[in-house]
TrEMBL record:
Residue stretches making up the Glycoside hydrolase 123 catalytic domain: 277-501
Designated name of the protein: DUF4091 domain-containing protein
Domain of life according to the entry: Bacteria
């Protein structure tokens, strides 16, 4: 017994002396040669209905890494299970702009046992905890056990405080991000019509919904239609099989639903009357199904002057259906399009005037824009290369480079706060929704594992990577989510925190908190400590308000 005790003491001493894992905030991007302060333990706070993560940086040179399942234990014998990925790296050749840079940047989240990274890359684990709405509030504790090279590393203690307040499973901010079955099939080497491709599309879209994002496009196949006596007879069976789980809330255990859905135009409907009848049938089907998602018609994207007549015609056809189907137009304020848009969606840079060259032909602050529009018109926004620059790399003109810097951004080689900023910014501005053109664009043009540079930016239009059986570490076809998708989700959760504070009578506090993070579209706080401090303050205020609120009474939960 004495010898066993001595050997255990010696092992503990050796582990303590060896460089152990370090915990780094999920608001940082861990890169080669960038020194970040780390902690020996992870402390997280999350609402019910929320996900939060920490990064665990392993000692340099760690190989053959294995991770034991992590389940934190808490009140009433409850558990909180963790998901663990390894961060893979992209070798960026051309920076998105002066805020980016060349070299290795973390983005794909891959299985822990997948192929190792290039020499010199950090070995980083992304550890995520998600608390369902039914999770018992309180303190949960456990330890992450990692082996490298067949030897155990020092355990990493995890403490998570599950808060009593609840975030809704479905995003309170309407959004619609593009995705395509055909792009996915191309990158995975599958036939689009195959059952395997259809199942894979479901997995991709489910991953978006798990990150609070609704999708448009998908298979892009319109339901078959024929016309009888001026009425559209539509077969919605295939459409319902594809879309139903996401519209009715059965795709995920959380019950999350799409906030929006696009009308899929049909080439079979040729005349104006047939098109209107088809749109009418589409809207009536949604109503009969009881689907709550906002059905919209996506008009000609970014119309040029020669496209104005087409957009006007499209709007007239939709309105002739005499159904509540808004027409979405992606354009800045334009008198030529007045009356055609029910949802006007300019790019982000069209809302915030700043000195220097103009990157939008009509910059109008949101409140001014609303006064110029009909009262029923909603205003969305979207990111484009007009924020980071469409050519790639810093420009020689300092004034031009400045106007393309600082914006909220979904680029790989930009700081995490820029990736996360759209949620708080949406709350502060009061915008009605967000659009994004694609999430798998690079699947069409290149190998995303090597390069996602499109439209002058690294990752513009690409938030996934194709996991295939041909790639080490993947036993089947599957979507590989990006760190940026996690950051977008975190920003949407920030939006929910701010909205909940507002609903509990803390509007002034909520606006001040959002302003500390995002003063404008191009003035985003990049100090991660400030983001963490604001989140702590919001959490403390919400706990205090929640205890006495009607929300808490209805949920039957009190703070511990």
């Amino acid at each position: 017994m004495g010898a066993g005790w001595a050997m255990g003491w010696l092992l503990a001493e050796l582990l303590a002396a060896a460089p152990g894992p370090r915990v780094v905030s999920a608001l940082e991007k861990v890169r080669p040669g960038v020194e970040l302060k780390g902690e020996k333990e992870a402390r997280l706070s999350l609402a019910r209905g929320e996900c939060e993560a920490a990064q665990v940086v392993l000692p340099q040179g760690s190989t053959r890494v294995q991770v034991k399942p992590l389940a934190l234990r808490g009140p009433k014998g409850g558990t909180l299970k963790a998901s663990v990925w390894r961060e893979a790296f992209l070798d960026v050749k051309t920076p998105s702009n002066s805020q980016g840079g060349t070299g290795l940047w973390p983005d794909p989240l891959v299985p822990v046992e997948s192929a190792p990274e290039p020499e010199g890359a950090p070995h980083v684990l992304y550890v995520e905890l998600c608390a369902p709405e039914s999770q018992e509030p309180g303190t949960y504790q456990g330890a992450l056990h990692v082996e490298a090279g067949g030897k155990p590393l020092a355990p990493v203690p995890f403490t998570a405080e599950v808060q009593p307040f609840v975030l809704p499973a479905t995003s309170s901010l309407p959004n619609s991000f593009g995705i395509s079955l055909y792009s996915i099939s191309r990158a995975h080497g599958l036939k689009p019509e195959s059952p395997e491709a259809r199942e894979l599309l479901h997995d991709y879209v489910g991953a978006l919904l798990a990150h609070r994002i609704s999708a448009h496009g998908m298979s892009m196949n319109p339901p078959p239609v024929r016309f009888e006596g001026g009425k559209a007879v539509v077969d919605f069976s295939a459409y319902d099989a594809e879309m139903g789980p996401f519209l009715e809330g059965s795709a995920l255990s959380s019950g999350a639903r799409f906030t929006t859905a696009d009308v899929r135009d049909s080439k079979v409907a040729r005349t104006d009357a047939e098109k209107s009848a088809y749109y009418r049938a589409f809207a009536e089907h949604f109503r009969q199904k009881g689907w709550k998602a906002r059905l919209f018609f996506y008009a000609k994207d970014e119309p040029k002057p020669e496209d104005v007549a087409l957009v006007r015609t499209q709007a007239l056809r939709v309105r002739a259906a005499k159904q509540d189907v808004p027409v979405l137009v992606t354009a800045p304020l334009d008198d030529a399009l007045r009356g055609s848009a029910d949802i006007l969606a300019p790019t982000l840079n069209c809302f915030f005037p700043r000195p220097g060259p103009q990157t939008c032909r009509n910059v109008v602050p949101l409140q001014t824009l609303r006064r110029k529009l009909d009262p029923h018109v909603k205003v969305w926004w979207y990111q484009s290369c007009n924020s980071h620059g469409c050519n790639g790399g810093p420009t020689e003109d300092a004034a031009e480079e400045k106007v393309y810097s600082g914006w909220a951004s979904y680029m790989v080689d930009h700081p995490t706060p820029l990736n996360r900023a759209m949620g708080p910014l949406a709350f502060l501005s009061g915008v009605d929704g967000e659009l994004y053109f694609d999430t798998v664009f690079a699947y069409n043009t290149k190998d995303p594992w090597k390069d996602v540079f499109e439209f002058g930016g690294n990752g513009d239009g690409t938030l996934f990577y194709p996991g295939t059986p041909a790639r080490p570490g993947f036993s089947r076809h599957q979507p590989v989510v990006s760190l940026r998708l996690k950051h977008i989700r975190d920003g949407l959760e920030d939006y929910e925190y701010l909205r909940l504070l507002e609903s509990l009578g803390e509007q002034t506090f909520a606006r001040e908190a959002a302003r500390r993070l995002t003063r404008s579209g191009y003035e985003v706080e990049t100090d991660t400590r400030q983001w963490e401090q604001v989140r702590r303050e919001m959490t403390a205020r919400l706990r205090k308000r929640w205890e006495a609120s009607e929300y808490a009474k209805r949920s039957g939960v009190r703070p511990k």
